Amino acid sequence: MSAFGTPRPRRADASWRARLAVVLLLLTLSAAFLTDLGQSRADAVRCERFTSQSEARRAVVAPALGKRVVVIGDSWSAGLGLDDAGDAWTSRLSGQVHVDAFSGSGFSRSASPCDGSWFGARAARAVAGGADLVVVAGGLNDVDQPVGAVRAGFARVMRAVGKLPVVVVGPASAPSRAGGAPEVDTLLADLAEAHGAAYVSTLGLDLPYLEDGLHLSPEGHRAFGDFVATRLEVLGG
Fold it and tell me: Where is the SGNH hydrolase-type esterase domain (predicted)?
């Protein structure tokens, strides 16, 4: 008791509160660590699956004769969500079509957590066998990426393909990412012009999608592919 009869604060209570605060902090950090670890494992599994699908996709070449067309793209070109990846929109193009696609990838390096998946990292490999035309299709995975990253990635692609003729196919207005698609479309159109590549905008297309609002249905792939094929004919590609 103090001289005035007031109980003194108990040091044990203060110590208990301090220990409790430390325990709560450790629990919070542990939860964050486990969340990050779980996300890392999920990313690793997804990247492994996408890598396998990408390799299988590259092995499929349209049996048609004619010019060699190389497509560098994302999940749309990979045919993600289709029963047969060979039915992706690229199947509507004429010529010997070679597809180098990786789901989740884009122009920017950080669009996907999978190492070496971005367009710039795959472009040189994609055109190693030569090409009469290079079609680079994507952009939906770049809607949340810094403009500078998209610019740098685009330049990397163009350096890799060298003097080969290039047509860039921009993003359509997929419902789940429609808000960011117009900005990416404008950016890619400007970059294509600056680098001497042709550009095909697909923003105005009314396409059917799967339930995720991001990937095309089989009908959507046919409509998208027919549109791009027609535009390539107009461009002389």
Answer: 71-223
Tell me the pLDDT tens digit for each residue of 99-156: 999 999 999 999 999 999 999 999 999 999 999 999 999 999 999 999 999 999 999 9
Which residues neighbour 235 within 8 Å (Cβ) at sequence distance 6 or greater?
167, 198, 200
CA–CA separation, 97 vs 181, rounded Å?
26
**Residue 10: in which H helix or E strand, if any?**
none
The 10 Å Cβ neighbour count of residue 116 is: 14
d(C-alpha 73, C-alpha 75), whole Å: 7
Number of domains in the chain: 1
- Is 202 within 8 Å of 224 (Cβ atoms)? yes
* Cα–Cα distance measured from residue 170 to residue 179, given in angstroms and rounded to the nearest whole number: 14
Total residues belonging to the chain = 237
**For residue 234, what is the enclosing H or E element?**
helix 218-235
Whole-prediction pTM: 0.80
What does the pLDDT read at residue 7?
56
Instruction: Tell me the backbone φ, ψ of residue 209, rounded to 5 degrees.
Output: -120, 165
Distance (Å, rounded) from C-alpha 101 to C-alpha 137?
Answer: 9
Q: Is 38 exposed, middle or buried (0-12, 13-18, 19+ CB in 10 A)?
A: exposed
- Does 16 reside within a domain? no
Tell me whether residue 31 is in a domain: no
For residue 220, CA distances in Å to 15, 138, 178, 183 come to 65, 15, 16, 22
Q: Which helix (H) or strand (E) holds 166?
A: strand 166-169
What residue numbers bound the domain in which 162 lies?
57-235
State residue 147's pLDDT score: 98
CB 57 within 8 A of CB 87: no
